[in-house]
């Protein structure tokens, strides 16, 4: 099964309706999910809050904000992501990111910037404790027994008692277990320091590479690492991330698939060509087994997302490579991922 996702970033746009329109367009194209970037390094809207606004205006497409795990409180992070999963009825994910600069550290004043290796190890701990906190409520912990006045079965709430290298969390969470059990975890695994965290914790790993062979090599490495961590490697999806400029069709005349294939730029691998050749590139890379899917960042948000949805997607559907309807109601359904079992079910609180 081929998977497709797209970024809906719109720098300097502060109108919620604009984001709703783009996400609805992605949903019309039956994309697995959309992402919305966020960072402490520049001004902008809070991605998680924006997608919480988008959630009730959409029905099926997954919603994946970037969430920085550095300088933030893990308990609050997991509660916010769980809330997005509730308000979207099981369509939430979160893209883990770290903050490496001293300027960003000064915004909080709690500590100095740290090496990336340390920050990605911490991000993994945040992913770990988030999953434990989501499991701290068993699925049937809410009993809402009006005659006795009991809202919760306290035997089905659990302390996680997590001790990390830089934080500790007792739990339980203040938010009931999310509809998906664990909202989907996404990590950009392009850089080596993030790759270990992705292999251990991610449901979806993004890699920014310009050649199918590179993508296949990274995918193989991630799956082997996942197996070493005791995971089933078939539960890890690897997407190639490309910038997509679909506004200049003459570039598609160059030799080779997809207008000569993506070109490496300072912003990452860039595909420049037409929707038809993009479909050919996606099909050829997927047929080779190099990738499970693609994450596309439109160069011009509305123009290129429209050309992706109305041009590339129908061609892939015509070839039988991409779905014509959503297989279920949750993001895990779209990705073919099972709902995780609760690690604490049946234990005493």
Describe, in plain words, how this protein is organized in 3D.
- This protein is α/β, with parallel strands linked by helices.
- It is 37% helix and 18% strand.
- The chain contains eleven helices and 14 strands.
- The chain has helices spanning 16-28, 47-54, 74-87, 102-108, 116-135, 192-201, 212-228, 257-260, 275-287, 301-318, 331-335, and strands at residues 3-7, 33-36, 62-68, 93-97, 142-145, 150-152, 162-163, 168-169, 184-188, 204-207, 237-245, 263-265, 268-272, 293-298.
- Strands 1-2-3-4-9-10-11-14 form an eight-stranded parallel β-barrel, surrounded by seven helices. Strands 5-6 form a two-stranded antiparallel sheet.
- The relative contact order is 0.15.
- The model is unreliable at 250-258 (pLDDT under 50).
Count of separate DSSP helical elements:
11
- The rounded distance between the terminal residues' Cα atoms is 41 Å
Mean pLDDT: 94
Helix fraction, binned, reads 25-40%
Characterize the largest beta sheet: strand count, sense, and whether it forms a barrel. 8 strands, parallel, barrel
**What general outline do the C-alpha atoms trace?**
globular
By secondary-structure content and strand pairing, the structural class works out as: alpha/beta
Q: State Rg.
A: 20 Å
The percent range for strand residues is: 15-25%
Could you give the order of the helices and strands? EHEHEHEHHEEEEEHEHEHEEHEHH
Strand order of the largest sheet: 1-2-3-4-9-10-11-14
Number of β-strand runs: 14
* Low-confidence regions: 250-258
């Amino acid at each position: 099964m081929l998977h497709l996702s797209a970024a809906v970033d719109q720098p300097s746009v502060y109108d919620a309706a604009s984001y709703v329109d783009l996400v609805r367009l992605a949903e019309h194209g039956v994309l697995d999910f959309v992402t919305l970037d966020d960072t402490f390094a520049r001004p902008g809207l809070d991605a998680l809050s924006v997608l919480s606004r988008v959630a009730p205006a959409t029905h099926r497409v997954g919603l994946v904000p970037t969430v920085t795990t550095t300088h933030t409180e893990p308990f609050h992070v997991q509660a916010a992501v769980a809330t997005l999963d509730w308000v979207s009825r099981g369509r939430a994910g979160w893209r883990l990111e770290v903050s490496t600069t001293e300027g960003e550290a000064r915004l909080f004043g709690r500590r100095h910037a740290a090496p990336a290796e340390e920050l990605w190890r911490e991000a993994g701990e945040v992913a770990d404790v988030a999953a434990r906190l989501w499991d701290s409520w068993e699925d049937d912990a809410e009993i809402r027994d009006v005659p006795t006045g009991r809202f919760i079965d306290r035997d089905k709430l659990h302390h996680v008692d997590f001790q990390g290298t830089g934080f500790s969390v007792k739990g339980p969470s203040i938010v009931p277990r999310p509809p998906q059990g664990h909202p989907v975890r996404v990590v950009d695994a392009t850089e080596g320091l993030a790759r270990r965290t992705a292999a251990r914790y991610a449901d979806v790993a993004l890699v920014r590479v310009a050649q199918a062979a590179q993508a296949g090599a990274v995918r193989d490495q991630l799956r082997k690492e996942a197996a070493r961590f005791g995971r089933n490697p078939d539960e890890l999806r690897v997407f190639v991330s490309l910038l997509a400029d679909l506004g200049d069709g003459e570039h598609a005349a160059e030799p080779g698939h997809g207008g000569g294939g993506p070109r490496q730029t300072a912003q990452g691998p860039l595909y420049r060509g037409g929707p038809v050749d993009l479909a050919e590139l996606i099909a050829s890379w997927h047929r080779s087994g190099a990738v499970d899917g693609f994450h596309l960042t439109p160069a011009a948000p509305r123009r290129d997302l429209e050309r992706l949805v109305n041009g590339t997607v129908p061609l892939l559907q015509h070839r039988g490579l991409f779905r014509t309807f959503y297989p279920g109601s949750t993001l895990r359904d779209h990705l073919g991922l099972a709902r995780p079992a609760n690690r604490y079910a049946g234990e005493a609180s």
